[in-house]
Structures are given as structure tokens and as C-alpha cells.
């Protein structure tokens, strides 16, 4: 991580962060799915053709996991990327083999803690996009941020 | 999967589903985190002590991934468990090494499609609980359900 660490002091509404890219392939999709989402549209390219997805697609939770990796790298929060929860997680379209993913994040709101001074909840819109700029995942995590000591 | 396949016809509001159990350990937590959430509180038991989590904790996305595995098994929807999106994903407390997890699901709402007859969105509250009955994850997926042909 070459990015400088981010404290609450460094954050403002509207601030944007762009991650690096993750190159997906069928092997990754199948490996994740065998462990966590063993359904034929995620594990079997042949059988996937006759399903809702009409071809192999990544589990939404695999897309979410890759997204987390890209968020950790592009949003180096001082105490780590710690989520208090998530709003509005959606997958507008499937993630496919050979997709190249990156995450674009924008700070929507900064809510200072009433009970714990020096701490805030930061609401961020994170969009995961493929190589055509299509949004494959959108969500709004609520991350913990701490003031510079 | 020994459970019979579930069609829209088989579902009603208030219906409950209990999954089998998943036994977590530190090795699984670290393996997932190295790939998708490389932060010391998920990858290093020693360094994790001095963090917000005060010890090794699973990535929330790892808990979500295990939850998906348990949901796929306990909710054998006819065309597969296909999520149109998720509301209110939260992790009320950390998942720890040696936790034994299961998922309790309850149908909240069944919304028939206006444009596509024979299809509906089913809102389900899924709570992932540990061996003490404490909720470690709660979320409301919106799943696709299809009428029996």
C-alpha cells in the first residue's frame, strides 16, 4: 500500500477514490463458488448456459469479496477498513469471466459520533465497474474513521 | 441437497428455514482474508490484539460468503438462489475462530412481478448466529422465485 493512511481529518464529502484493477477469470469464479456458492451457474460453464444467467457468472459474494480487496487498497483508513454495516447492496448485472474490475468510491456523508469524540461513521458509495464502465455492483458501506491522534 | 426444490407456490410469509452448521477456524479466516481482505485483524492473530477487534476476527465478507453457502443449502430455490439485491447488511458483532455458525431465515414479503407472470421477489430476513445464539450477521436478500411449471 503506497497510499498515505487516511484519518477522519483527511476526509470530505464528495471526495473520490479510484482503485486499481482486478482481472477475473473462469478459474477464480469456479474456485470461489465451489467453496461458498456451489450453484451450476457459478461452477459449470456448460450447465450455466441453460440457467437464468445464460452462461458462467461470478457469485455476487465473490464480486463483493473482490470489491473489498480493491477498497482496502484504495481507501487506506488509519485503523483499517472497518464496516459498521452496508446499505443498498445490489448487482445490476452479472460479473463474467475475463471481466476487469475496478472500484470507484465517493464519500456521501460524514456522521460524527455523539458518544465517542474523535470518531465518525463515513457513508461511501462504492461502485464496482467492468472494462466497459458498466456497474456490476453498487453498495454504500458505513466505515469507521478516527481523528489523527 | 436432500431438501425438495422450492417453487414460488411453496413459499408463504412467516415461513422459516434453518441451515446446517459451519465450523470456522483461524486457518479459514486467514486464508479468506489473505485473498480478499488483507488487514492484520483478519490475517495475524498476534497483531490483531492491538486493533479495534482486539483479536483475530473474520472479514465480514467471509461471514457473508459462509452465510451464502448455508443459504444455498437450506433454501433450495427451483432456479437457484439468485439475489436481486440486499437490504440492511450488518455485522452486529465479530465472527471469531472456532465459532460454529448457522443461518435462520424467515420470509418477510412476497412481491409478484408485474411484468413477468409466474415470477416474484421474495424478501427474506437471514440471521447468521454463532454457537451462543448471538447474531453475527443480519441481512435481507431479495430472491427470485418462480412458479411451478
Q: Can you give the helix content of chain A as a percent range?
A: 10-25%
**Quaternary organisation of the protein chains:** homodimer
Order of helices and strands of chain A: EEHHHHEEEE
| CATH topology value of chain A | Thiol Ester Dehydrase, Chain A
Radius of gyration of chain A: 17 Å
CATH homologous superfamily assignment of chain A: Hotdog Thioesterase
Overall pLDDT metric of chain A: 95
- Main sheet properties of chain A: 6 strands, antiparallel
The CATH first-level class of chain A comes to Alpha Beta
**Number of separate structural domains of chain A:** 1
* Content of β-strand of chain A: 25-35%
3D shape of chain A: elongated
Measure the end-to-end span of chain A: 21 Å
Q: How many strands in all of chain A?
A: 6
Helices of chain A, by number, come to: 4
Pfam family, one (chains A, B): MaoC_dehydratas
Protein name (chains A, B): MaoC family dehydratase
Summarize the structure.
Chain A is an alpha+beta fold and 149 residues long.
Verbal overview:
Two copies of one chain form a homodimer. By secondary structure, chain A is of the alpha+beta class. Chain A has a single domain (8-146), classed as Roll (Thiol Ester Dehydrase, Chain A), CATH 3.10.129.10. Chain A is built from four helices and six strands; from the N terminus they run E-E-H-H-H-H-E-E-E-E. In chain A, strands 1, 2, 3, 4, 5 and 6 form a six-stranded antiparallel β-sheet that branches. Chain A is elongated. Chains A and B meet through helix 1, helix 4 and strand 3 of A and helix 1, helix 3 and strand 3 of B. Chains A, B: Residues 13-114 form the MaoC-like domain. Chains A, B: This is MaoC family dehydratase.
Amino acid at each position: 500500500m503506497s497510499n498515505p493512511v487516511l484519518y477522519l481529518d483527511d476526509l470530505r464529502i464528495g471526495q473520490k477514490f479510484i482503485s486499481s484493477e482486478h482481472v477475473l477469470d473462469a478459474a477464480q469464479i469456479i474456485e470461489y463458488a465451489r467453496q461458498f456458492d456451489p450453484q451450476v451457474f457459478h461452477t459449470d460453464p456448460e450447465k450455466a448456459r441453460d440457467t437464468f444467467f445464460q452462461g458462467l457468472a461470478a457469485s455476487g459474494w465473490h464480486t463483493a469479496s473482490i470489491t473489498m480487496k480493491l477498497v482496502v487498497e484504495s481507501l487506506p483508513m488509519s485503523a483499517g477498513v472497518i464496516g459498521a454495516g452496508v446499505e443498498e447492496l445490489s448487482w445490476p448485472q452479472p460479473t463474467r469471466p475475463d471481466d476487469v474490475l475496478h472500484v470507484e468510491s465517493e464519500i456521501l456523508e460524514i456522521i460524527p459520533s455523539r458518544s465517542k469524540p474523535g470518531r465518525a461513521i463515513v457513508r461511501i458509495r462504492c461502485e464496482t465497474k467492468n472494462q466497459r464502465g458498466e456497474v456490476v455492483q453498487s453498495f454504500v458501506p458505513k466505515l469507521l474513521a478516527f481523528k489523527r491522534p
